[in-house]
UniProtKB/TrEMBL annotation, chain A:
SUPFAM superfamilies: Alanine racemase C-terminal domain-like, PLP-binding barrel. InterPro entries: Ala_racemase/Decarboxylase_C, De-COase2_N, Orn/DAP/Arg_de-COase, PLP-binding_barrel, Y4yA-like. The keyword Transport does not apply. Keywords: Pyridoxal phosphate. Residues 49-272 form the Orn/DAP/Arg decarboxylase 2 N-terminal domain. It comes from the Bacteria. It comes from Streptomyces spongiicola. The keyword Manganese does not apply. Its cofactor is pyridoxal 5'-phosphate. This is Diaminopimelate decarboxylase. Gene3D superfamilies: Alanine racemase, Lyase, Ornithine Decarboxylase, Chain A, domain 1. Pfam families: Orn_Arg_deC_N (PF02784).
From TrEMBL, chain B:
Its cofactor is pyridoxal 5'-phosphate. Residues 353-444 form the Rhodanese domain. Keywords: Pyridoxal phosphate. The keyword ATP-binding does not apply. This is Pyridoxal-5'-phosphate-dependent protein subunit beta.
Length: 504, 445
C-alpha cells in the first residue's frame, strides 16, 4: 500500500474534548439515529468575540453580522442573540431567516437583510426596523414604494456595490485586478443612479453605509474594493448623504486541515495521479477539475483551500493591515481616519469549530482493487454533509464502538492504516460522501462512528437541511375533471375520491 | 561594440567563475552565467525576442497587442520589444506579487491584468476558470492579440538551444560542464541548455530547482506548478529539488556582497541550490585527484526585489532608525508625559487661547479633505514622524493641539514633543471620532 495520505482535521477545544468522549457520542447516535449533527453554541459566541478583538486592535466601531445562511440552527442564532447588541448582529437572506432571527431574540435594529428579496421580506424588514442591504436601484424603488404605501418609518439602507475592477476614478493604481462577475450589487460605474434614487426617496430611506461582497479568497481584490468604498463614502457625504458604515461582507475562510504538509502532499499527489505517474487518489480517477493534456496538467482544482494559515479573524486582521492599493495606508487606518464604522458578515468563519456530523458505519467490504482499498458504507448520504459540493477535503475521525483501541476488540485486518471509499446510504452510484480515497488509521467496523469535524457548523449549509430557510417545493396531484383541472395536496390524494372531496 | 538596435545586444553574456573561497567547494569549479547582463535585464530577453520576432515583424505598425501570462521578466522584455515596434503589450497573471516589478512594467507601458482569486464559496461544477476565458478571448475571430505563449512555445526552448547552451560550451573551451543547475520557471532555459549540453556530452548532469510548495520565489515554479508547463519534461532533469525564499535571499546576498554579482533572488536560489547539491559531490571527489565543472544561471538583477527582501529579511535593508521617534517611547512614558484634552476643553482653548493653538491633523490627506476640524493643518503621521526625527517642527511659543482618529497616536507624539522640550503640546482625547461624536463641527473642502 502507498503511504497513507491523511488530511486530518483541525480540532480545537472544546470540540476536541467532545470528540474524546466517544461513549457519549455513541449514546447520542444510538438514541437519535445516524446521521446526527451536533452543535456547540458556545463556540459561535467565542468566534464573534475573536472578530471583535480585531476591531478593538484597530480601534474600529461597528458590528459583526452572522450570515445566517451558513447554518439553519436555532441554538447558534439564540446564542448570538444573547451577545452584546452593539457588537453582534445577524445577516438574513430570506423571509424565513428574518422570522427565525426575530423569534430567536434578535431585535429588528440588529438585523441586516441581504440577498435577493421579495416584497414580503422587504416589508417585514422595514416593519421591524432592520437595515436593508440594497442590491440595486430597482430594489430601492420597490422598498421606497412599500414604505410610502404602508406608512412605515424611514428605513436604514446600505447600498451594495460591485465591479470594482475598472480603474476610473481616484483609485486607479495602474493595474486592473480582474474579479469574478457577481449577480449581486450595483456596478460602481452605475452608482450615480443609486445616489439619485436615494435623494429622490429621501423621505422613505436613509443611507447608512456602503457594502460589497466579493466571492474570492484573494485579499488584493477585497482591499481594492474596501478602499474604493471609503472614497465613495466621502463622495456620498459630499452630496449631503450621511453614511456611516462600510460593510465588507464575508469570505474570511476556515482552515479545515490542520497540517500544511498533509495538504501539500495530497494536492501534489493529485497532480501526479492526474498525470498517471502514481495510482489514483479518487473514485474512478476523478481529477477534481484537473486533467491531463499530453503530459501537462490543465484546469483548476475545484477544491477549497483546506489548509489555511490565515483564516477567520486572522484574515480580517491581515486584510485591514495590508497597504491599500491606491492610497497606501492600510484599510483599518482609512476606515478610522474617514470616521467610518466597519460591518463584517462572516458565515463559515463564525461557525468554525461549532459542530460535527456523526455517521454510523453500516457495512465494510473490500473492493476489486484488493484489500488495500475498502468500501465503507455510512448511515448518511452525500447531501447530509455536502463535502463534495463545497470541495472541502478533510478526514473524518474514527470513533470505535468500544470507545478506543484498548484491545478489548480484535483488530480487523492487521489494524494498520487503510484507504477507504466512503459511500452513502442511497441506491445511487453517485452517492459518495467524498470522491477522494480517505485514509483511516485502521479499518472501521460496522457500528463504529465517523465524525466529520466542522461539517455541522458550515458544510451542511445550502445543500443539507435547507439552511437558508427558503420554502421547499410543495407537491400537488392534479386530475382532469369535467372541463377543468382539479388539484389536491399530494398527501391528500386517494384514488377513490375526487380531489375536492366529492365522491366520484 | 556598435549596434543598430538594442536587440542585437541580446545574448553573449559572460560566464564568471565564483571564487572557491566563497562557495567552499574544493574540487569543483563553479561558474555563473550572467543572464542579468542582457539589455532588458534578464534571461528572458532571449526567448522573448525569439518568440516575438515573427509576430513583431508581421504586426509592426498595426494596432495589435502582444499578450503573455507573465509576472515579470518576460513581460518586461516583451513590453520593450512591443514598444519598439509600435505595438501594445498586455500581461495577464495571478503571480505579480512584487510591487517594483509591477511599477516598472507600468513605466514600460505595459497593461497589467491580474487574475481573480479563488472563489470562497466553491462551485465545483464551475467550468469558468479565468485562464480558459483568457485563451477563448485570444482565439476569437478578428482578435488582434499576438500571444507569445511562453509556457508552450517551442521557440522559448530554441532561444536557449541556439544561444545560451552553445555560449556555455564555447566559454568552457568546447567542454561541457559536469553539472548544469537551473531554476525551473517556463522550463525554457533548462530544457534548451540541457538539450545542447547532452548533444555535446551525454554525461552532463542537470539539476532542476523548484520552489518549496508553500513558498514564493519570483520566476520559479513549485513542483505542482511545473506540471502545468507545456515545456516541462521530467526527463530533462537528472534530479529536481526544492529551494526556499530564505535560500534565495541567502544566495543573493552572497553573490552580491562577496562576488560583485548584482543578482536577484532567482540567481540566489540557483547558487544556493547548486552549492548545497555539489557539496556532497565535492566530498566524494576528495582524494580522486579529478576536478569537475558546474554552471548555474543568474537570471536577473537585485534592484526590483527590494520589497521582496524587506518583507522577508528586513534587517538586510534597515539600519537602526536614528533620532527622535514616537515608536521608541514606552506606553508608560506616553501616559506619563503625554497631555490630553477633552473635546469641550479643546474647543474652549481653540476659541479663547492666547495665543490660539495650532491644530495639527495627523490623518491621511483624503480623510482630511473629506472632513476636518476647521482651521487645522494636515501633516500626515508618516511625514510627521520624519519631521520630528531631527527636531521640533514648531516654535516653542506656539501651543499645539494634535489630532488623530482616536487620540492614541496623537498622545504618543504629544509625549515625544514634550520630551523634546515643547512646553505646550496636547493631544485631542478620543481624537476626531470623539470630536464628531460630541457633535463638534467638522468641515470639508
Amino acid at each position: 500500500m502507498d503511504a497513507p495520505l491523511y488530511l486530518r482535521p483541525r480540532v480545537e477545544p472544546p470540540l476536541a474534548s467532545l470528540l474524546q468522549d466517544a461513549p457519549f457520542l455513541h449514546a447520542l447516535c444510538d438514541a437519535l439515529g445516524s446521521p446526527l449533527n451536533v452543535l456547540l453554541p458556545e463556540v459561535v459566541a467565542e468566534n464573534a468575540e475573536r472578530f471583535r478583538s480585531v476591531y478593538r486592535r484597530h480601534h474600529l466601531a461597528g458590528r459583526v453580522y452572522f450570515a445566517h445562511k451558513a447554518n439553519r440552527s436555532s441554538a447558534l442564532v439564540r446564542r448570538l442573540a444573547a451577545c452584546d447588541p452593539a457588537a453582534v448582529g445577524i445577516d438574513v437572506a430570506s423571509l424565513d431567516e428574518l422570522r427565525h432571527a426575530l423569534g430567536c431574540g434578535f431585535t429588528g435594529d440588529r438585523v441586516m437583510a441581504t440577498g435577493p428579496k421579495d416584497r414580503d421580506f422587504l416589508w417585514l424588514a422595514a416593519r421591524v426596523g432592520a437595515t436593508v442591504n440594497l442590491d440595486s436601484a430597482g430594489e430601492l424603488e420597490q422598498l421606497a414604494h412599500l414604505v410610502r404605501r404602508h406608512g412605515l418609518g424611514r428605513v436604514d439602507v446600505l447600498v451594495r456595490l460591485s465591479e470594482f475592477e475598472s480603474d476610473a476614478g481616484p483609485t486607479g493604481s495602474g493595474t486592473r485586478v480582474l474579479s469574478r462577475r457577481s449577480r449581486f450589487g450595483t456596478p460602481v460605474g452605475r452608482s450615480g443612479e443609486v445616489w439619485e434614487a436615494l435623494e429622490r426617496y429621501a423621505d422613505a430611506v436613509e443611507l447608512t453605509g456602503l457594502a460589497y461582497h466579493l466571492d474570492t479568497t484573494a485579499p488584493e481584490e477585497k482591499a481594492r474594493a474596501l478602499e474604493r468604498c471609503v472614497l465613495l463614502m466621502d463622495e456620498c457625504r459630499g452630496r449631503g448623504l450621511r453614511p456611516r458604515a462600510v460593510d465588507i461582507g464575508g469570505g474570511f475562510g476556515v482552515g479545515y486541515v490542520d497540517d500544511a504538509g498533509e495538504w501539500e502532499r495530497w494536492t501534489t499527489a493529485l497532480s501526479e495521479a492526474v498525470l498517471g505517474v502514481r495510482p489514483s487518489l479518487t473514485w474512478r480517477g476523478h481529477g477534481y477539475g484537473l486533467r491531463n493534456e499530453g503530459g501537462t496538467v490543465r484546469g483548476t482544482a475545484a477544491l477549497y483551500p483546506a489548509h489555511r494559515s490565515v483564516a477567520g479573524p486572522g484574515y480580517l486582521d491581515a486584510l485591514l493591515s495590508r497597504p491599500a492599493p491606491a492610497l497606501g495606508r492600510p484599510p483599518a487606518t482609512l476606515l478610522l481616519e474617514h470616521l467610518n464604522d466597519l460591518y463584517v458578515e462572516p458565515g463559515r468563519a463564525l461557525v468554525d469549530q461549532c459542530g460535527l456530523s456523526l455517521a454510523r458505519v453500516l457495512d465494510v467490504r473490500p473492493t476489486e482493487e484488493g484489500p488495500a482499498r475498502h468500501l465503507v458504507r455510512l448511515g448518511m448520504n452525500a447531501g447530509d454533509v455536502s463535502l463534495e459540493e463545497h470541495g472541502v477535503l478533510v478526514d473524518p475521525v474514527l470513533l470505535p464502538r468500544d470507545g478506543g483501541g484498548d484491545g478489548r476488540r480484535p483488530e480487523p485486518s492487521g489494524g494498520g492504516p487503510v484507504g477507504v471509499h466512503l459511500v452513502g446510504n442511497l441506491c445511487l452510484e453517485a452517492d459518495l460522501i467524498t470522491r477522494r480515497l480517505v485514509y483511516l488509521p485502521r479499518l472501521p467496523c460496522a457500528g463504529d462512528l465517523l465524525a466529520f469535524v466542522n461539517t455541522a457548523g458550515y458544510v451542511m449549509d445550502f445543500h443539507a437541511h435547507r439552511a437558508q430557510r427558503q420554502p421547499v417545493a410543495r407537491t400537488v396531484a392534479v386530475a382532469r375533471g369535467e372541463g377543468a383541472w382539479r388539484w389536491c395536496p399530494d398527501e391528500d390524494y386517494w384514488p377513490l375520491t375526487d380531489p375536492q372531496g366529492v365522491p366520484s | 561594440m556598435r549596434y543598430d538596435t538594442i536587440t542585437e545586444a541580446i545574448g553573449n553574456t559572460p560566464l564568471v567563475r565564483i571564487d572557491p573561497s566563497v562557495h567552499g567547494l574544493r574540487h569543483i569549479d563553479l561558474f555563473a552565467k550572467l543572464e542579468m547582463l542582457n539589455p532588458f535585464g534578464s534571461v528572458k530577453d532571449r526567448p522573448a525576442w525569439f518568440m516575438a520576432r515573427p509576430h513583431l515583424q508581421q504586426g509592426a505598425g498595426g494596432d495589435g497587442t502582444v499578450v503573455e501570462l507573465s509576472s515579470g521578466n518576460t513581460a518586461k522584455a516583451l513590453a520593450l520589444l512591443a514598444g519598439m515596434h509600435g505595438l501594445r503589450f498586455r500581461s495577464v497573471t495571478n503571480r505579480m506579487r512584487v510591487p517594483e516589478i509591477k511599477e516598472l512594467l507600468l513605466l514600460l507601458g505595459a497593461e497589467i491584468e491580474e487574475l481573480p482569486g479563488q472563489s470562497e464559496c466553491l462551485d465545483p461544477t464551475d467550468t469558468d476558470d479565468p485562464l480558459t476565458r483568457f485563451h477563448q478571448a485570444l482565439s476569437e475571430p478578428d482578435s488582434t492579440y499576438l500571444h507569445t505563449d511562453q509556457y508552450f512555445n517551442p521557440r522559448n526552448v530554441e532561444a536557449h538551444a541556439t544561444g545560451t547552451g552553445p555560449e556555455i560550451v564555447k566559454d568552457l573551451d568546447g567542454r561541457v560542464p559536469d553539472w548544469f543547475i537551473a531554476c525551473v520557471g517556463t522550463a525554457g532555459s533548462s530544457t534548451g541548455v540541457a538539450r545542447v549540453l547532452r548533444e555535446h556530452d551525454p554525461r552532463v548532469r542537470v539539476l532542476g530547482l523548484v520552489a518549496d510548495k508553500a513558498d514564493f520565489i519570483p520566476g520559479i515554479r513549485t513542483i505542482d506548478e511545473v506540471h502545468q508547463v507545456g515545456l516541462f519534461d521530467p526527463a530533462t532533469y537528472d534530479s529536481l529539488t526544492s529551494v526556499t525564499s530564505q535560500d534565495a535571499i541567502d544566495g543573493m546576498v552572497t553573490l552580491i556582497r562577496r562576488c560583485g554579482l548584482l543578482s536577484g533572488p532567482t540567481g540566489g536560489a540557483a547558487y544556493r541550490g547548486a552549492v548545497r547539491h555539489l557539496e556532497s559531490v565535492d566530498a566524494e571527489l576528495a582524494g580522486t585527484g579529478s576536478r569537475r565543472t558546474a554552471v548555474f544561471i543568474v537570471c536577473d538583477r537585485a534592484e526590483s526585489y527590494l520589497s521582496y527582501v524587506r518583507r522577508r529579511r528586513p534587517e538586510l535593508l534597515g539600519a537602526a532608525r536614528r533620532g527622535h521617534s514616537a515608536a521608541a517611547l514606552t506606553d508608560g512614558e506616553v501616559r506619563a508625559e503625554g497631555r490630553a484634552v477633552e473635546v469641550g476643553e479643546a474647543r474652549r482653548w481653540m476659541a479663547d487661547g492666547d495665543p490660539r493653538p495650532l491644530v495639527v491633523d495627523l490623518r491621511g490627506p483624503h480623510a482630511y479633505a473629506a472632513l476636518h476640524i476647521e482651521g487645522s493643518v494636515n501633516i500626515v503621521d508618516e511625514l510627521f514622524e520624519e519631521l520630528v526625527r531631527t527636531g521640533l517642527p514648531f516654535s516653542k511659543r506656539t501651543p499645539v493641539l494634535l489630532a488623530c482618529p482616536v487620540g492614541e497616536k496623537s498622545l504618543r507624539y504629544a509625549a515625544l514633543l514634550t520630551r523634546m522640550g515643547h512646553p505646550d503640546v496636547r493631544s485631542l482625547a478620543g481624537g476626531v471620532v470623539a470630536w464628531r461624536d460630541a457633535g463638534a463641527p467638522l468641515v470639508r473642502e
